[in-house]
């Protein structure tokens, strides 16, 4: 007879209590395990907050075991999601930068929400009407729902009250037009003896992603579209409205010199703003909580100044369902998404981060009403939503976006003129879009 | 005259060292400054100074687990690499077989590939080996190293063949020869490679982010980014600096302790 090995003995010893334990929970099936990829794009202990939310979700849903997986920046999250889908390990749900959703649809890598919404007894149209209308173009693509908005933002004008008073400006009437904006920036800019700038008039980030976002906003407040909101193969980089926006940037940096030359990132902007080294800055509403906690002197926020119309581009992220998951995992992901975007949780996340809650009903809750009363800056961000315009999304979004951003950065560094910049950006973008355009708009009917 | 030039050399080196030190000095200062002070860029701030950034950074994540995972990953990669690069280096330095130089050139070609290019293929391999979401999955693609093979081949070629021939006469087999004759002589080369390997994998971010999802398999760099990165807003510099200090600290400490030996092995192996 074979001698009893140590492993066999150990197995037998463990088997008895394990079997007893199993019998106890035999009625409850093993929970469906899902994972949620999430980026952290704003400062703060957001990763811990997200894990806390998912823990609460798990406690309330015995049949699901969700894991919140931190996946870096918006771009890293995009990369990891792509790689995971290609490697056959798609996550059940992802909080994806809202302007990447269209590309996932073009590449056929996500499932639509329509059947799930219908199963829950709503029409997709009625369901999407529960969200702010400006969020639709980045979430509903080809009349199908591919993204559920989770955290959203618009750019906002932040200004230093003391600097305004000191420069002879009225803090109750922040600049509303481009002309007033440049005039205010000129008054705010202060030089030390010897010509070194002590305080800039205005700053905004010129780094990738932020740069394109703000320039698209300037173009839209200049009456333009910037890109075709309905078709991913066209951008309007050399349109007069875009040229006008770049001319404004050029005037701020190179002509009036009220804006620091070169490319500043968001950290440089907030640090300068906190230190009183800039009178105004343009930054996301998603930064509201961070600014509120760290700004020592009074500040206020205002709408983005307009030239021909008020406009502010949407930013933020939506929840998506990567293709290749089992129906069970997808159903569990849908439960999680429904919970995360419920008015209560969406409102809580909004108060914690500064993002606005995409679901309108979140603002009917008493705690949200209190919050807006206490924080008038959050109210301004919400009010600006009526002027919100869609976020830049095309085929090959990042590369096409960079075609313009590279030119804007060249203007910031004084290396090109607006007229040359728009031509080069358009040429490079057309080149990048051509494969898609040839497969779609230019494809001759068979 | 020579003494004068010596002084000039020391002065130039000190100046370069000073420039190199600025970011570290700033980071060390920033760790001690609470909140977001207005003069955060200053190298001579007035204060106040507090230690609470470290506490906040430490509690922002599971640092003990991240340290452990990073140690396992770096140690595991290095242990396997030392065996593979020694064997491969020996083969390319001493053995003669058809297509040897061609194969070596192909090996070196790998150095020209940008790592992000290999993310998807590597991930597919890792998934098919059932290593996805495991520490072994982070390590696997690095078990062979083109750079290490190259370095060891060069190191072995500098060792006179006389030692090997003497050992052969005594009846040593190839494994015994490598283990007891060549490896002891090639130790500085191996040490130089170990430094490069550990530093690279300690600091690596993208691949661990791709290969692992469970919080229990997180490494230091990914963990740090989870509370230090912010695209849409500014940073709480003090906490970020404290977190960076916690991540970079062990490597810096190791370098200070073994400074002399590191420098000696770099000079020996010709890496500058």
Walkthrough of the structure:
Chain A has 446 residues and is an alpha/beta fold. Chain A contains 19 helices and 15 strands. Chain A has helices spanning 6-24, 46-60, 74-86, 101-106, 114-119, 124-128, 136-139, 161-166, 178-188, 210-221, 240-255, 266-274, 288-294, 327-340, 343-353, 366-374, 376-383, 397-412, 418-439; strands at residues 32-38, 64-70, 93-97, 110-111, 140-141, 144-145, 148-153, 155-160, 190-191, 197-203, 278-284, 299-302, 312-313, 315-322, 388-389. In chain A, strands 1, 2, 3, 4, 7 and 14 form a six-stranded mixed sheet that branches. In chain A, strands 9-10-11-8-12 form a five-stranded mixed sheet. A two-stranded antiparallel sheet of chain A has the order 5-6. Chain B has two domains: 1-50, no CATH class; 63-269, MetI-like fold. Chain B contains 14 helices and no strands. Chain B has helices spanning 2-31, 52-60, 63-94, 100-109, 119-128, 135-139, 146-157, 162-169, 174-185, 187-203, 206-211, 220-228, 237-257, 259-269. The longest helix of chain B has 32 residues, at 63-94. Chain B is globular. The A-B interface holds A 35, 37, 40-45, 47-48, 51, 67-74, 76, 79-80, 82-84, 86-89, 91, 153, 209-210, 266-267, 269-271, 274-276, 283-284, 286-287, 290-291, 294, 296, 315 and B 35-36, 38-41, 60-61, 116, 119-120, 123-124, 126-127, 132-133, 205-206, 209-210, 213-215, 218, 222, 225-227, 229-237.
Architecture blueprint of SSEs:
The complex is a heterodimer of chains A (446) and B (272).
Chain A: H1 6-24, E1 32-38, H2 46-60, E2 64-70, H3 74-86, E3 93-97, H4 101-106, E4 110-111, H5 114-119, H6 124-128, H7 136-139, E5 140-141, E6 144-145, E7 148-153, E8 155-160, H8 161-166, H9 178-188, E9 190-191, E10 197-203, H10 210-221, H11 240-255, H12 266-274, E11 278-284, H13 288-294, E12 299-302, E13 312-313, E14 315-322, H14 327-340, H15 343-353, H16 366-374, H17 376-383, E15 388-389, H18 397-412, H19 418-439
Parallel strand pairs in A: 1-2, 1-3, 10-11, 13-15
Antiparallel strand pairs in A: 3-14, 4-14, 5-6, 7-14, 8-11, 8-12, 9-10
Helix pairs in contact in A: 10-11, 11-19, 16-17, 18-19
Chain B: H1 2-31, H2 52-60, H3 63-94, H4 100-109, H5 119-128, H6 135-139, H7 146-157, H8 162-169, H9 174-185, H10 187-203, H11 206-211, H12 220-228, H13 237-257, H14 259-269
